[in-house]
Design brief:
The chain has 81 residues and is an alpha+beta fold. 31% of the residues lie in helices and 36% in strands. The chain has a five-stranded mixed sheet with strand order 1-5-4-3-2.
Amino acid sequence: MKIHIRKSAIRDLKKIDRKDKEKIHSEISELEKFPAVSDVKKLTDFEHSYRLRVGDYRILFDVSENMIEIGRILHRKDSYK
C-alpha cells in the first residue's frame, strides 16, 4: 500500500525529539502492511480513519483503496481534542 504524508504531519514531526521520531518513522514504514499492523484502532464516527499508537504519540491516518494518508502525528494529550 502506498503512503502519503500530509504537510500538517510533516510539521508535527519537526516538533518531536529525535528518539521518538525514529520510532515513528519505523512504524510508518510498517503501515505498508495495513491492516496486519498491531496497535491500530478504527476511529468512531469516521468511516475510513484510524489511529496508530507509538509510545506517547498517535499517528492519525485515513485509508482508501490503495493509499494511506497520514494527517497528523500528535502527542496523546493533544490527539483527541
